[in-house]
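Please, structure for the following, as tokens.
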Amino acid sequence: MLAKVIARNAMALGAFAIITTGAIAATYLGTKDRIAVEERAAQARALTEIITDDQHNNSMLDETVMLDDNSLLGLKQAKPAFIARLDGEFVAAILPAIAPDGYSGDIQLITGIYADGSVAGVRVLVHNETPGLGDKADRKKSDWVDGFAGRSLGNPGIEQWTVKKDRGEFDQFTGATITPRAITKAVARSLEYFEANKALFITDQAQGEQQ
């Protein structure tokens, strides 16, 4: 009798698992296309916060240069850089980068860089910094990242691409130095990478190329 009860319960659990798995699979299949569309739209919005619609008329999401893992950018796997063009002319590249020395680990960001080597804008995408302190790097929390706009490797000189506490040019947050220091240095490294690989981004055959 006990064996029959156990067998019956096991069959019931098995049937429940199959039904649940099927329901989850059906839900995923029914929503994955919508999720993909929404993710693409969110990514497009992040790019156009840096290079606005009046500055380009190509699809930045569809014109990319894949960058392999790279110590200068801090990348641990291949990621796309996005190209902005206006009537076919190169306007800017938006480069991915990772600042590995944040207070709570890696900080993922993108930096838009114009053809003349100046910063179009910076956005922090992913971080685990302390709420109320390090999270001020997030554009939703403060406008601190706007301080990079218009700067370049010559403005200021590379030795001043750090926070004022380190005798650099850029403000730190009240009560937090590690996060802004890490981001500032990551932006400087992005500028250095762009300068060293400028032809890679400006070429008309940018899409699909790899570095």
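The mean pLDDT is 83. The chain has three helices and five strands.
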